[in-house]
Amino acid sequence: MLTIGKVAASLQVSTDSIRFYEREGLLSPAKKSDAGYRLYTEEAVRRLNFIKHAQQCGFSLSEIRELLEIKGQDKACCSDVYRVAIEKKLLLESKIKAFKTMSQALTKLIEICSRDAKPLDACPILSALESSIAKQHARSKSLPHGRAASNR
Amino acid sequence: MIKVEAFSSPGCAKCAKAKYTLKVIIDELGQDRVSWRDVNILEELDYAIELGVFSPPAIAIDGELVFPALPSPSRLRAELIKRLEKSR
After folding, report:
1. Residues β-bridged to residue B5
2. CB B11 to CB A87 under 8 A?
3. Annotated domain spans of chain B
4. Average model confidence (pLDDT) across chain A
5. pLDDT at A62
6. Which chain B residues are within 8 Å of A86, Cβ to Cβ?
7. By Cβ atoms counted within 10 A, which residue in A32, A123, A133, B30 is the most buried?
């Protein structure tokens, strides 16, 4: 049996993280010692390693929970994991697309900036952001209620 | 012509079975009135994301994600009939 400190050191995670995973229901000690210390098996170390790698791949805690549940089911097969991976990829790609759009918008704003010592009132970036916010308000007011609500 | 697009990932046995039952509806309504296209999301990832497909299998009709999850045959039939009547 391994103490929380040894488990944490073996995978280079903090003991706080291990306690957090326990609160989230992802990892639990096999038992507690007479003195109340958490004790873990090698299986818990493998499970923690899995959680750590899945987080590095961008999986959220709820997705990791789903993967661990699949892993623990006798009837589950590779296609169940494949489905989760596909859904994650779609989500990541959509975020990448949104980030690219945001980056392009920032490029345009940066291009119009003269980088001189004018007061903030004359800042083209701030005024462009304000005018785009005003345009968005005007657009949402002109939309029918249902449509505007669905875009929120 | 109404365009139905079924988004799924390759090798999904459940999707293939469900799609087969839905394709029957297209045949019932007439392939001259409703078209069916299988979309492999891995090959057309950008298009899938553009339509908001996050959990395949899903069905888009005329470029709009109408069923984010595969509908029952009766729901798809009702939706297509509604659209066919509207387009008359």
Report:
1. B37, B60
2. no
3. 2-75
4. 87
5. 93
6. 9, 41-42, 56
7. A123
3-state SS, residue A82: helix
Residues 6+ apart with CB under 8 A from B76: B4, B22, B25, B59, B67
Instruction: Say which DSSP state B70 is in.
Output: P
* C-beta pairs of A17-24 under 8 Å, 24+ apart in sequence: A18/A48, A21/A48, A21/A51, A24/A61, A24/A65
A121, amino acid identity:
D
Q: In the CATH scheme, what architecture does the domain A2-59 have? A: Orthogonal Bundle (1.10)
pLDDT of chain B, 88 residues: tens digit per residue: 999 999 998 877 778 888 888 999 999 999 899 999 999 999 999 999 999 999 889 999 999 999 998 899 999 999 999 999 988 7
For the domain with range B2-75, which CATH number is right: 3.40.190.10, 3.40.30.10, 3.30.1330.10, 3.90.180.10? 3.40.30.10
Token couple for A93:
């790609």
Q: Do B45 and A93 touch (CB under 8 A)?
A: yes
